[in-house]
Amino acid sequence: MSRTQFFTVAVLCGMVFAAQAAAAAESRSTGITPQAQPVQPPIPAAEHKMIASFVDSGNPQSQLSAGANVIEIGTVTCPKSESSCTLILSAMDQVAFPASATQWAIQMLVDGAYADSSPVQDILPANGIDVGSWMGDYPVAPGKHTITFQTYVEVPALQAQWSVNYTVAKP
Where are the alpha helices (DSSP H) in 57-122? Predict the structure, then answer.
């Protein structure tokens, strides 16, 4: 047996021993022996078939003001022959060089309504750069829909590279 194999076996044995010792300690302190819980398989998501996709990107190196800044607006259509569609939306955004450390967020709006709560991407470091990504889905009725991609910053910053993908799928 090689040293690497021996070390791996020793580590695994130590992990098993530690788990058994923890279970025994819990059993002694509570009088209850822990039982293994059956693992439930994940519920499969509904199948979606792509109808159309819209892709765009840029690297404007433009100034962002404090607040929500519109980066891109796209229009997609859910065919009238469908009872509904699912918009599968994704974005990558790179923001740079604020005067001070601050939070920032990627915001997606569909027909003026936020697609989600616009989670904060990260704390953008002072005089630094950060990259974030976002993905979500949004159900829509048949017809044209406007998608707005925004970058929210708390202080002025620089808009660097960005990209979006808006996919229309059924259902």
Answer: none
Cβ 153 vs Cβ 102: under 8 Å: yes
User: Do residues 99 and 126 make contact, with C-beta atoms less than 8 angstroms apart?
Assistant: yes
For residue 147, the Cα-to-chain-centroid distance in whole angstroms is 17
Tens place of pLDDT per residue across the chain (171 aa): 444 443 333 433 444 344 444 444 444 444 444 455 565 666 666 788 999 999 999 999 999 999 999 999 999 999 999 999 999 999 999 999 777 878 889 999 999 999 987 777 878 778 888 899 999 999 999 999 999 999 999 889 999 999 999 999 998
pTM, two decimal places: 0.70
The reply to whether omega before 171 is within 30° of 0 (cis) is yes
47 φ/ψ angles, rounded to the nearest 5 degrees: -75, 135
